[in-house]
Amino acid sequence: MGGDLFQDLPPPTAAPSQQIVHNSVNSVTEESSPKPPTPPPPAPALKSALKRPKPPPESQPEAAPGKRLRFKTTTDASEKQVIEAMQKIASHIKNPSKFSKASKLAVQLIQAGSVKETTSSYFFTVLEAAMSSLTTCNDPSLRADYHALFSAAQDVAECLSKKQQNLLSAWTISAVWANDLFTDDSFVFSKATGRIKEEITSLPVATEDDDIEEAVALKDETTEGSADEQINKELSPHATNDGCREEEPDPFGLDALISNAPKDNKSKGKKESLSNSRKDDEEEKKIFLRSQREALISCLEIAAKRYKTPWCQTAIDILAKHAFDNISKFTTGQRDAIEKLWASIREQQIRRKQGKSVSGKLDVNAFEQLQQKYASEKISIRHAVGGGGERRCEQWLG
């Protein structure tokens, strides 16, 4: 009966206290259950890269051998390979069409430090082959290459002998200083003329022997050599009228050994060696002076050809006057060339003083042109053209 009476009623609700307990239990169970951790914010790439520890050098992978060659400035070559390379360069550098490439290879050998005392003689053959023709070094297409090669050769001049250094300094006059005279830079031109003046001052006074050697050098060496051989054959003491050699009275030199003492032989040998060394030194000095004078004369001729350039004229005047004042330091044939050069420059100086340039036109610069233009203008003090015709503008221009 009771169940029927309460059938239409809603089900009983829990008490407020029980509801609170139930809610608290649910909240506790929710709190006690583990929640998934939230992922941390990503760190900036720069900060993580800075904090990243560097790996040890052993763990770094080595680059391939082919790639490392791109960054190498020098090549490890044996002395034998360097000598073979210098011999090949010397054989090709004589050809003007191959000079550019061969000279650059020679400069690379200098920069790589391959020119040493053991290889200096082979490198000197390269320079000697390059200067086999003294006129080729001033060719317009080869000037820069000659200038670069002999400028770089100054860095290894200490490895050469005294004789080789003297020849290198003489070749430098033709290959470097003479080519500087073709420049369009007034500073480089003036510097080159100053060097030439100093070199002329350092020359000794020419003697009669120098004149004789110059005359002999102009002759054909092959004809001279054959004539000397013929004369020696005819004047030989062991030759007969039939051209047959007589038997020597003492072919083994026993008489000289018996008659002379050993001490005398030693002293004679020392004297002969000293005299031979002195003769060699004198001969080397004469060769150096002859090549030095010839190079300076070629520089004077090159400078004289540039006299038509206005800004070159003052430096050329000073150089030619200095060479004429020191004309006694040159040989007879070279003195004639210097006198003709100085006479030509003096004539052009007179033409300049008369108001005419080398070309025959009036030698007027920009300032003189403006002076002539505004000398006839009529200018008033009110910044307008007036009718006074005063000569204030001419006075202002000087």
Automatic annotation (TrEMBL):
It comes from the Eukaryota. Residues 34-44 have a biased composition (Pro residues). Residues 1-77, 220-285 are annotated as: Disordered. Residues 263-285 have a biased composition (Basic and acidic residues). Residues 15-31 have a biased composition (Polar residues). This is Uncharacterized protein. The lineage of its organism: Eukaryota, Viridiplantae, Streptophyta, Embryophyta, Tracheophyta.
